[in-house]
Each structure stands twice: as C-alpha cells, then as structure tokens.
Design goal:
alpha+beta, 3-stranded mixed sheet, 3 helices, about 25% helix, DUF4230, DUF4230 domain-containing protein
Length: about 180
C-alpha cells in the first residue's frame, strides 16, 4: 500500500523573485539630534455604510491595529551660525536651542494589521476582482499616532534630553552652560 502524501507533487509551487537591486538615488547630510522617541499603538475602527442598502449586501467595517514610533528631533545645524555665544571670560557658553520637532510616524509593518473586517456580499464579490485598498487605514493610523505624539510630552522630553547632552558635552570642556529657547 502506497501513501499519496509520499509521492512528490507535480504541481508544487515555486516563488521566483525577479526584482531589481535597490538603487541609491541620493544622500543628504543631516545635523539632527534625536533625543527622544515614542512607541504608539492605535486601533482604527472605520465603517463605510451605504445609505438605504442593508449591511448584509453592501458596506464594510474594519478594525485595523497599527503600531508605530515617532522620533522627536532637534536640528543642531543652526548652532554653528548664531546659536552659540561664548562669554567674554571664556568660561561660559549661551546656547540658543532650536525648538524640537516631531518626525513623521514610522508604522511597524510587522505589527500593523487588519484585525477584523465585516463586508457586505457585494463588497466581498468585488474583492474577488480587485484588491481592497488598505491605504486609508494606514493614513488614519499615522494621523492618530501623530496626534498622540504631539500630546504625549515627547517634545518636552526631547528638549530636556538635548539640554542634558549639551550640558554634559560643554561641561567636560570646562564651560558652564545657559540655554535660551530659540523657538
């Protein structure tokens, strides 16, 4: 007696990657210091309802779980111009600290996913012909994570961490440091 599972399948699937190698398009010099980062998670609940049509036939509701991070940064490039003032006795330095900014959210693709999706019959049939667009969920997640980062105190923490770093750096060189908010 021979088992069917023991025979090699003549219909085995094979994946062939014909992608081209990545091509470096440009390089930029940065003068940013990233003193703080926040990790966030949000559940997006979006429903698309079709008026006067039962939900069994058309419409959808999607729960999308998104995880991502936001960096707070300070552009230290301006310190070389007029951002530093050394005292006349050469023992102190005044630093005009630029305002911290929040970077664009970086969504974690491995931990962002559609948790559940209920679709009407017509929407399910339509997804057999074309791929459902998930971009609105990613955009909504980025917007919510940006808002959460702005309200979380991340900017204040970035400012304090930058002051601590510069105080330590100049302190080792024998300077006492005073800060003036530049923005």
């Amino acid at each position: 007696m021979q088992f069917i599972g023991a025979l090699p399948s003549p219909f085995g699937a094979e994946t062939i990657d014909r992608s081209q190698p990545a091509l470096l398009q440009s390089v930029r010099d940065l003068s940013q210091y990233h003193p703080a980062a926040g990790n966030y998670q949000v559940v997006i609940d979006i429903e698309q309802d079709i008026k006067n049509v039962p939900a069994v036939l058309a419409g959808e509701r999607t729960l999308f779980v998104a995880a991502g991070s936001v960096d707070a940064y300070i552009d230290l490039g301006g310190l070389a111009d007029d951002g530093l003032t050394v005292s006349t006795d050469r023992r102190g330095v005044e630093v005009r600290l630029p305002a911290p900014l929040l970077d664009k959210p970086n969504l974690d693709q491995e931990h962002s996913y559609v948790f559940s999706q209920r679709r009407g019959l017509l929407d399910r049939l339509g997804s057999m012909v074309s791929t459902p667009n998930q971009q609105p969920y990613y955009l909504a997640a980025e917007k919510r994570i940006s808002s959460a980062a702005a309200e979380s105190g991340l900017v204040d923490r970035a400012r304090e961490n930058t002051k601590a770093m510069l105080s330590g750096l100049f302190g080792v060189l024998g300077f006492r440091v005073t800060f003036v908010d530049g923005g």
